[in-house]
Amino acid sequence: MGKITIFDVAKEAGVSKSTVSRVLNEKGNVNEKTRRKILKVMEKLNYHPNSSARSLVTKKTHTIGLVVPNIIDPFFLQFIKGAEDVGIKNEYNMMLVSSNWQVKDEWRYLRLLEEDRVDGILLISGRNISDSYIEFLESEKTPIVIIDRVLEKNIIPTVNVDNVNGAYITTNYLLENGHRKIAFVMGPNNMQAALNRYEGYKNALYDYNIKLSDELIYHGNFTKESGYQATQKIINDWDDVTAIFYSNDGMALGGLKVFKEKGIIVPDDISIVGCDNIRELSLIDLPLTTLSQPRYKMGYTGMELLIKIIENNDNIYPEKIVFNMEFINGQSVKNISAR
After folding, report:
1. Is 68 within 8 Å of 79 (Cβ atoms)?
2. Could you give the CA distance from residue 121 to residue 258 in angstroms, rounded to a whole number?
3. Which of 73, 107, 261, 291 could anchor a disulfide with 325, C-beta 3.0 to 4.6 Å?
């Protein structure tokens, strides 16, 4: 027997094609007895409606585009998993693409996804993007939710963590443990998370009446290699720095490599803290004091919000959802208050 069609279902059930269509699309008045009969016939014939044909009727594809900065970076896997679980629960397919940290590629993929008529787009975009880009996103009719990007204008729903407060808590922990000369390894200037973590570091120093020293600020790009290079400079520049705040754990891993090569013991010789609680930390003997953001929950919440917008089919007022970061007290900080 060839492929089962809607005509076969209608014939077997003794109803019209339009009646079967109304049952499939949950529209129109079909009495419960007839509806159950049609569903039973569909199960008997093993009929699966063609998604393309259904989308012509419903104007929906039941597909959501997910754009991430780097599809192979383990950091983003929990975001993706959270979004995927909500999509599966609500019977949405996902079309996953990687922008490779390039705004121009994000723009290109967004246009391609819209041409493929996805019902909505979930965009993870850590880097700062221009006002014109934000205005472009807002002007598009396709619903969109952005994760990990703080927008000045409240025109698109966003899901973020409080990086400022997280970095403040971490820096304050170092200060409470007697550290006063704290080097800070900053992430890229075009990433909002990096700027916010620097702000939290500055605020904590200010509240302790410690003058900010630009000479203690080192720049990286959130990679292990840049953390390695920054740590070498810190060691060469200073002999009295007692702690280093790496604004992500990838750079902290680079720092640990330098310490191992030079025989520097953490935390006996120097204290360090990181941010993000990446999986690679489980491979090292020393539990790192760090911050953890609820990546799975952020992806889950972002997808929930997007589906709500799609299915309500209205222009709800954009939401700003902000999660707190969890402070994880490891064993990489020494209390030197008695010095």
Report:
1. yes
2. 41
3. 291
118: nearest Cα among 58, 53, 60, 51: 60
- What letter represents residue 310's amino acid? I
The values of phi and psi at residue 211, to 5°, are -70, 135
Burial 266-275 (b: 16+ CB within 10 A, else e): bbeebbbbbb
> 88, 147, 156, 152: which is closest to 123 by C-alpha?
147
Of 231, 134, 234, 149, the closest CA to residue 190 belongs to: 149
User: Do 220 and 185 touch, CB atoms closer than 8 A?
Assistant: yes
CA atoms lying within 13 Å on the CB side of residue 299: 20
Per-residue pLDDT at 113: 78
pTM: predicted TM-score of the whole model, two decimal places: 0.79
| pLDDT digits 0-9 by tens, 109-150 | 777 776 767 888 899 876 666 667 777 777 767 888 999 887
pLDDT in tens, 73-94: 878 899 999 999 999 999 899 9
* Intervals of the chain under pLDDT 70: 1-2, 25-28, 48-60, 114, 116, 126-131, 140, 281-283, 313-317, 338-339
Cis amide bond preceding 143, omega within 30: no
What is the rounded CA–CA span in Å between residue 41 and residue 295?
Answer: 43
pLDDT of residue 151: 76
